[in-house]
Amino acid sequence: MSAAARRYALTVAGARQRLTAPILVLVLATAVLQVSGGGLRPTSAVACGYLFPLAAWLTVALVGADPAPTAAIVAVGAGGTRALRRAQCRAALEVSAAGAALAYAGAVLSNLPHLALDDAIASALALALSVVGGVVLGSLCAPPVIARPGWSLSAVAVVSVAEVLVPVVPPVGPAIRGLGPETGGAAWWWLGGAVVGTAVLSAALLAVEKVLLQRLE
Amino acid sequence: MRLEAVSTRRPGTRAAVLRDVDLALTEGDRVTVVGANGSGKSTLLRTTAGLSLPVAGQVVDRPATVAYLPDRVEPPPRLTGRSWLHLVLATRGGTATDRELDELSAELGVSPGLDDPVGTLSRGNLVKVGLVQVLLSGAGLLVLDEPYAALDPAGAEALDRLLAGRASAGAIVVEAAPHPTAAPGRTAYRIEGGTLVRPETVVPGLPRVRVILARAAGEALTHEVAAHEVDDLLRAALADGWSVREVRAAPEVTP
């Protein structure tokens, strides 16, 4: 039934044209990235910068696609509002992961045959962290926690800018540093920090979201 | 299923809505919850359906499958009613054939039909599309928030008949209504001051009155109430902008 709930979420968000803008931006950004070329690490670092807010945007769009009364019709059948929200976030994760895979595949193909294995692993890890972190942020910024779309997207934008500018804010900050000019042990320390930081921050944000949802339902 | 000392508050606030509500429901029960706007009918229904968690008390032995009709049904305007219904029914692991959808929508009087974008449907027809998913769900608990509010008389009669059929098949049916709408076989509860009061079982043989109300937008409502409740109903309806089309004795119920 989770698959049916994800299909419902994607169809409804598509029919309401909530996915058009973020997917268009995702495709355009990926296309520009591929045309501009560059090594796998710098290309992936740029992709992390735009995948994080886009994953959050997609999550806000999917979770908030239906008005609350109509979403309730689906929620009772899908196992409750939490189960529906999980299905919507998973749908956002799948779409964002597809975008990340597209960016990654393009970067890998353009760097063949001179591709180092540790570059490939580090890039894949950084992209995955950005997508997961973006979905967690999007879930926290989606209705009913932040009810109005304008405030939701403003919150996503502010956090995304902070992610790029502040190196210690996971997942994007440390991931970009891990893919930067520093290589070897220092790069892996940054990426390791990104993994741990993303896990801890995601758990904390999801706990906050759970408390807020209990108050708002 | 039972609601045991359930208390709720308005979402996002500390304001209490329901206090220590107890309600026992068994298979085949058909319950109408009446009360003024903002009295907590929708909150009680959402809690019964499992959409809202009580701040105190608990809901136990809720049937495994639940179907819900909110007071507003707003599917994506570009989807057809049929597409939306297939998607919704799939989320609860069920399916329905196109023929089943067509038969039920025809019985409820969905006009023009399920193959038009829902954005072109009137409010009453949107409610009917919402009712189709409830009635085809096969759920053990049907929760409906003011389902008669936008229906024409023919649609209201069809819904009454269909819900009676679901109840006689063992489903628990819980409805909300702004005015007393008790009909034979239904138990009515009124919410006053956050508590459920005045349970009233409709006893076959007691005098009952059928009231048909209409509004400028083409909406019509049919209520069947106990004779002593007619004045209350008419006062509330007139204050709410309805005009009275007909008041007559309801057909007698055979015990």
What does this protein structure show overall?
The complex is a heterodimer of chains A (217) and B (255). Helix content of chain A is 82%, strand content 0%. With 217 residues, chain A is mainly alpha-helical. The mean pLDDT of chain A is 92. Chain A contains nine helices and no strands. Chain B has 255 residues and is an alpha/beta fold. Chain B has three domains: 1-64 and 140-201, Rossmann fold (3-Layer(aba) Sandwich); 78-135, no CATH class; 205-255, no CATH class. Chain B has six helices and twelve strands. In chain B, the strands form three sheets. A six-stranded mixed β-sheet of chain B has the order 5-6-7-3-8-9, sandwiched between helices. Chain B has a three-stranded antiparallel β-sheet with strand order 2-1-4, with helices on one face. The two termini of chain B are 27 Å apart. The chains are: A mainly alpha (217), B alpha/beta (255). Chain A binds chain B through residues 1, 4-5, 7-8, 11-12, 15-16, 65-67, 69-70, 72-78, 80-81, 144, 214-217, and chain B through 11-12, 46, 49-53, 65-76, 78-79, 83, 87-93, 130, 133, 137, 143.
Write the layout of secondary structure elements.
The complex is a heterodimer of chains A (217) and B (255).
Chain A (H helix, E strand, L loop, with lengths): L1 H14 L4 H17 L3 H24 L4 H11 L2 H30 L6 H25 L7 H17 L6 H7 L6 H32 L1
Helix pairs in contact in A: 1-5, 2-3, 2-5, 3-5, 3-6, 3-7, 3-8, 4-5, 5-6, 6-8, 6-9, 8-9
Chain B lengths: L1 E8 L6 E9 L5 E5 L6 H9 L6 E5 L5 E4 L11 H11 L6 H11 L14 H13 L5 E5 L7 H16 L3 E6 L9 E6 L2 E7 L6 E7 L5 E7 L3 H10 L3 E7 L6
Parallel strand pairs in B: 3-7, 3-8, 5-6, 6-7
Antiparallel strand pairs in B: 1-2, 1-4, 8-9, 10-11, 10-12
Helix pairs in contact in B: 2-4, 3-4
